[in-house]
Amino acid sequence: MGEFDLIRRHFQRDSGPAASVVLGIGDDCALLQPTPGHQIAVSSDMLVEGRHFFAGAEPEALGHKALAVNLSDLAAMGARPLGFTLALALPQADDAWLTAFARGLFALADRYACPLVGGDTTRGPLNLCITIFGELTPGKALRRDGARAGDDLWVSGRLGEARLALERRLGTAWAQSVGPLPCGDQRLDLPEPRLALGGALAGVAHAAIDISDGLSGDLGHVLAASRVGARVQVDALPLSPELARLPRHHQIDCMVNGGDDYELLFCAPAQAREEITRLAQACRTPVTRIGQIQPEPGLTWVDSEGHVLPLPARSFDHFA
Amino acid sequence: MGEFDLIRRHFQRDSGPAASVVLGIGDDCALLQPTPGHQIAVSSDMLVEGRHFFAGAEPEALGHKALAVNLSDLAAMGARPLGFTLALALPQADDAWLTAFARGLFALADRYACPLVGGDTTRGPLNLCITIFGELTPGKALRRDGARAGDDLWVSGRLGEARLALERRLGTAWAQSVGPLPCGDQRLDLPEPRLALGGALAGVAHAAIDISDGLSGDLGHVLAASRVGARVQVDALPLSPELARLPRHHQIDCMVNGGDDYELLFCAPAQAREEITRLAQACRTPVTRIGQIQPEPGLTWVDSEGHVLPLPARSFDHFA
């Protein structure tokens, strides 16, 4: 199987009714026609074998996750998907692997009407690079730098499940006692981007980010960009039944420093509480108020009695 | 040096006066504002160490080439650059390497007003993935499927120089006798995208492609997409002084099956000959008529006396 056969067989499909795609795979460039007057949102993520996923990872889940982490970036911006490119380095052209990978990739792509429009295929150590494009109305983007003192701090879904599942797979001692983790495994392998919620919050929330490196680190990015601080109620953090089996300090560590959550962390004025609750219900996405933005820089974790908890910030860093 | 320091130090710059970039590096997505009514052209290329470039390749040239091959795709579409993302897997955070890489990258980016707007940085086997965005007027794109029987076949610049330089570096016997190759080395390491010519041809030429895998293979893509054939005058192919030192059959092989040329191959009606000559002069880019599009499928190579030459097609294929 040659390079062009590989693309034709596994990645070129009838483009279907995606009105925004003028020209898809097979030319020097793809051509997209955004809605007139809209802005284009762009994000790129590179996943490396042995770094972002285990060697020998199940390819269908990998296809899902590679796209999901990019869709999550669009969600965090409040953008609507237009399409994506896939650049793929493969040690060899393995037909069964490619079939499963493409199945996982396109199942998610179809669900969000986000077509593959182009890319590159080459031989090399396994590496997946997806660049995604979305669109949104000017002025409505959920940027990191828009948080204001007094804003409520919200998070979607539940935190820390993927981290617990990861620690269990890595053989970490404290994560072995909790038994099977169907939710955690699902969260780790098949994260669900919060696109409906992100789109609904555009123009309502002041700022947002998706939690990929852990609540602590990603909240830190929002605070730094917005030049504000935050006070987070640790006891308000949404706890999952699987995490509840752990001792409390491990629960907190997973929720605060977890990573791979792909939940939305967002800041919104207190007047928007009812609207946010209504929007989240319409999106069938649970949301929880976990704290408040403060005028002074710094991130403070407090328990339900207001006592400050000395939590170390440990965001993931590829070159730390 | 951590991941975020690395990005700040080497890749985050004052965005300057790029009106099309609403939001650059540092958020979940970059935000671009295309010219109202325009289409977006998108292309993605992945360069792998030991595959697309030699291990230990000079990083400044690598920064140039990684962006140049993407700009060349925009040129081949007739699009104007808007910006690009860079996803980078690095074995380690080597400050000197990154400084030189960024110098080569930004020198070219600045020359074409094509800002870096986002991307990803991770640890892994050296891999560079650039996705580039351009814009163009609807209906003016230089697609591969627009060639028509009777069209002139044109090529910009000269072909085969990069291939000769590559063979010499690889130690291939026939390429050793030609002596130093300053032009070939320049073409191989620092290719120049034909953006001015591509932009000028939009709306004038019927079809175009950039020659990255070799004239034979890339012309084959145009013919297949347009469902036509072509007759190419081998003696009309633009020969460089460095290639002229080779025996004729090696000259032809380099020009026909070379690769890494990043010249534009385009098809245009005979009535446009004068206009094309004028546009090419205005762009200071030499162009040569090398043949004609035929109604019947198939690619025929002929000499100046009209004799058919039996040239094997040997386009580059990563998985052949």
Automatic annotation (TrEMBL), chains A, B:
Give any extra note attached to this record: Reaction mechanism of ThiL seems to utilize a direct, inline transfer of the gamma-phosphate of ATP to TMP rather than a phosphorylated enzyme intermediate.
Annotated HAMAP family: TMP_kinase
**Enzyme class, UniProt record, top EC level:** transferase
Pathway(s) this gene product operates in, as recorded in its UniProt entry: Cofactor biosynthesis; thiamine diphosphate biosynthesis; thiamine diphosphate from thiamine phosphate: step 1/1
Q: Where on this chain does substrate bind?
A: 52, 260, 316
Q: What does this protein do?
A: Catalyzes the ATP-dependent phosphorylation of thiamine-monophosphate (TMP) to form thiamine-pyrophosphate (TPP), the active form of vitamin B1.
Question: Where does the chain bind Mg(2+) 5?
Answer: 213
Which molecular function GO terms apply here? thiamine-phosphate kinase activity
Query: Catalysed reaction(s)?
Result: thiamine phosphate + ATP = thiamine diphosphate + ADP
Q: What keywords is this UniProt entry annotated with?
A: ATP-binding, Kinase, Magnesium, Metal-binding, Nucleotide-binding, Thiamine biosynthesis, Transferase
UniProt-recorded name of the protein: Thiamine-monophosphate kinase
Q: Does the keyword Repeat apply?
A: no
Q: Where is the PurM-like C-terminal domain?
A: 199-299
Where Mg(2+) 1 is bound, by residue? 44-45, 120
| Residue numbers binding ATP | 119-120, 144, 212
- Give the Enzyme Commission number: 2.7.4.16
| Family annotation (InterPro entries) | PurM-like_C_dom, PurM-like_C_sf, PurM-like_N, PurM-like_N_sf, ThiL-like
Family, per the entry? Belongs to the thiamine-monophosphate kinase family.
